[in-house]
């Protein structure tokens, strides 16, 4: 049987009302198309069954079959097949396809064909740009103008930006918004004044929001005054975004206007303005914030917590007494944030009130414990020791961490007892506490902790073993270091890995390949510990391994940040090229172009500054990031 006769049989079977017969014919037709598309597709297009003609064009598009161009495009005026033919032309994307699309850009009634407009954006042929610009300028249908704007944005051509800038004056707010959104990707600093003018006069709230986001992407001092003016916008959403961006820019120029907002506005804008004042950190905001804090902390505890956070960020001692007074609150949201703020202020007057709060409340004890550890006052030792008997892991882990920070020998025996009590063979509920105790014993540095750390080496949990290894390294005694070396010879590979993390910073090069292998470990905390070990080792080989890790890293910002920070070592010239590449990628990403204060940009520039070689500083100059 010839292929043609077999195809005719399959076509008839395809039309069968019997499902299995139809499906089998459909599958075989697909096979024939994949073998001989140039002959099978035209045969399908000649059939009177619309389903077969549709499938034929879909096959031609999916397989990018140029040899059936005439047969497929003969159906372009068939209303039922028109959209499929347009998509085929978009896929083929050659000059013939472009010419045919342009011939069908306008309908018979003079309106523009929306499907063709969209296809001209996807086809990415320079000859399509001028017709698309005409659509933006002349189309009466807003949908066509919006689609043409999105289509133009696909082209890297100097004709595109002027066309989008012209669309900012369109009578339709949705068209203006589409142009503003696309300009975010293409914006030239010379066009910012036009956007600022539009921000001031556009009556559409959503478009003003889009303009603010575009200006945020561009950054620079030129946008500060328009953002400050937007704090008086009729739309609270515009006001909120303006306050947020001004806070992220950390500009002192906005302080007076933001202080006015927190005394005037009663909506969510006020919360954004308070956060912005904390981010800016200017002491001029202290008195207005304290005035608001005194009036709001009892009636609106959430706002009081936001104010406390801002006062903590600013760091002025005038806030200490009002914050201490607020610790009498029974509202967890308020006193937890007040506690954190007092921790940032580091004022000893807060110690006794915080200890009292720690004993009085049930919710938030973990946050209070961490702050007591940060403040470093030995008066907190006994209350923290008592809390080791708590049955909540979050509290006991935070307590152990705080005792380690206080470095008081009185805590050694209670920590050892808590470690022994946390060992439950049936589960790992106590593993977090054991890990924190191992870390704390290393911070305290008392030799009585060594037997417990030795026991932690055989723990079933990675984090406990690694913390024990790092703790033994910090002890800096012969006994502790010998224990690390013995563990390195342990038959259990997991024990060897933990020992390697402790030994590599001591210069034990036999540990190097094991630590490098841990960069591929499935657990985040193990990867992080391996990065820290390589950083502490600091050898050229360790830096090479970290650079290699950055080459293969996925999306975890914390690990990427740690790796970049580790590369920031004096005279580490081998990292400069990789840091340049990272900087290029971050700056080229519109989401990261808000300002030089972006976290990732700052991390990279700090590393380049720390390297301090002529070539690393030249990178900063190349990106206009060098500060004399």
Commentary on this structure:
The chain has 628 residues and is mainly alpha-helical. It has 38 helices and no strands. It has helices at 3-14, 19-45, 50-62, 69-73, 82-92, 95-103, 114-123, 129-138, 142-152, 160-167, 173-186, 192-201, 205-218, 224-230, 236-249, 255-264, 268-280, 286-296, 301-314, 320-326, 332-345, 351-360, 365-375, 381-387, 393-406, 412-421, 431-444, 450-456, 462-475, 478-488, 493-503, 512-517, 524-537, 540-552, 557-567, 576-588, 599-611, 614-622. Helix 5 (82-92) runs antiparallel to helix 6 (95-103), helix 9 (142-152) packs parallel to helix 11 and helix 28 runs antiparallel to helix 29 (462-475).
Topology of helices and strands:
Elements: H1 3-14, H2 19-45, H3 50-62, H4 69-73, H5 82-92, H6 95-103, H7 114-123, H8 129-138, H9 142-152, H10 160-167, H11 173-186, H12 192-201, H13 205-218, H14 224-230, H15 236-249, H16 255-264, H17 268-280, H18 286-296, H19 301-314, H20 320-326, H21 332-345, H22 351-360, H23 365-375, H24 381-387, H25 393-406, H26 412-421, H27 431-444, H28 450-456, H29 462-475, H30 478-488, H31 493-503, H32 512-517, H33 524-537, H34 540-552, H35 557-567, H36 576-588, H37 599-611, H38 614-622
Helix pairs in contact: 1-2, 2-3, 3-5, 5-6, 5-7, 7-9, 8-9, 8-10, 9-11, 10-11, 11-13, 12-13, 13-15, 14-15, 15-17, 16-17, 17-19, 18-19, 19-21, 20-21, 21-23, 22-23, 23-25, 24-25, 25-27, 26-27, 27-28, 27-29, 28-29, 29-30, 29-31, 30-31, 33-34, 33-35, 34-35, 35-37, 36-37, 37-38
